[in-house]
User: Fold this.
Amino acid sequence: MDKIVKGATDRGIRVILDQHRPDQYGQSELWYSQSLTEKQWMDDWVKLAKRYKNNDRVIGADLHNEPRGQATWGDGNPKTDWQLAATKAGDAIHKVNKNWLIFVEGTDRHKNEQFWWGGDLQGVKKHPVKLKEPNKVVYSAHDYGPGVYNQNWFMAKDFPKNMPAIWEKHWAYIKKQNIAPLLLGEFGGKKTAGKSSEAVWQNALMDYLKKHQISYTYWTWNPDSGDTGGVLKNDWKTIDKNKMKMLAKYQTPLLEAKKGK
Assistant:
């Protein structure tokens, strides 16, 4: 990890560290699992916050990837309340590194309504994550297209005109209402050109993000994501020109690398 972080930051790339899964075997609904206790989860984040404290291009922690299933938001149950756990972890991290941004993903449902894993942030309205260190929370949603799962809204007669209302309901309202910083932490798909529903969806989402100035990180750079493919093709060298053409509509300019690099 040190080598990867140094390689990225020496080239001017900002790094967000992410607990994508608790071990090498698979993802988990909650931020802890049978193989990873909640204490170890928090201790690991504190260790990383200390380790990279002096590298100002390591900017924060995405505390857990795609809380879902058992995960709740704001109900006060210490075993399942993701909002409560994110608050505790964020405060623990800031005791050793006040500069880090704390990225908090959504859950997969609000009340009885299902959405994408990590994509539903409706709970923020009544139960925001409030840290002792102000202005350090970034809410992060995941949102996908029909190539991952063919949700009802992709088959609506008014698709893709129906999509902005869905995005706004579940996560984009946070930016539109100026509640907090918002990152669309994951979205992607194999098809970006042509008239397939996935290509139409991806381009509509890019246009929406640009219109409302919502930041994003695209899934994914590497080609071996089965659902989405990558910006790199299967040889790990060739760039998918169609994906880059779409992303170039709304892209942060290249950062300046450290002098001498």
